[in-house]
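Ticket reopened. Same input as before:
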Amino acid sequence: MSETVQTAEAEESAETRSSASTEDLLVQEGDIAGDYLEQLLDVLDYDGDIDLDVEAGRAIVSIDGGEELEKLVGPRGTVLEALQELTRLAVQQETGTRSRLMLDIAQWREGRRTELKELGKSAAEKVLSTGEKVRLHPMTPFERKVVHDAVAAVKGTYSESEGEEPQRRVVVFRES
Amino acid sequence: MSLLADALEHLVRGIVDHPDDVRVTLVTTRRGRTLEVHVHPDDLGKVIGRGGRTATALRTVMAGIGGRGVRVDVVDTDR
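Engineering reply: fixed in the latest deploy. New output:
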């Protein structure tokens, strides 16, 4: 008897979940991530404001504040990537679905994005003028995506990724 | 130092099925300091991750917040 009731409840909650819009899920992802990170800042006694947003179909969590936040970015953003990975797992633990949440700290991604756009553009221009392919240094998936987009904006060139993580890198070619 | 243990404990608690069973202890041996992570046996896989990916992420974050040179060990309690 009690089993029947539980099953009915489980079905109902499954239905509620599927009817909830993606937007609601993304907002929920942001909330869970915000709590997880806020408590981390508390433990570490770091100053930081957490901003939640939903953009292009994913939750965005940005932390801005004191200088010690640089430690959570780390060399070439490695700590930031690791913390993003853990935050996604914490979200998945609560929602039961894989998260594509993006974490940014101290606007590192914004700054890096600007640098990488420049790098992609100048590599593509070099390839155009010399005809020789250019291999860039190893990058994270986020960094490679920014470079691919910048190369795609330069007519007559294209790019591919080669190698295995963490040595995977972008190679820029001239269209034949 | 207990700050590192507290931070690690918080990070691990958020990603497991049995958060109340998470314990992090700092152990000092001749080889240096180690943060030992104890979790419910069913959560071992989660904390280690595929190919050790999650454990690596935990180590990277700990190194970032000042735990460079401190080992992070996920303890298999069945041992």
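Helices of chain B lie at 2-13, 44-48, 53-67. Chain B has one domain: 1-73. Please confirm and we'll close it.
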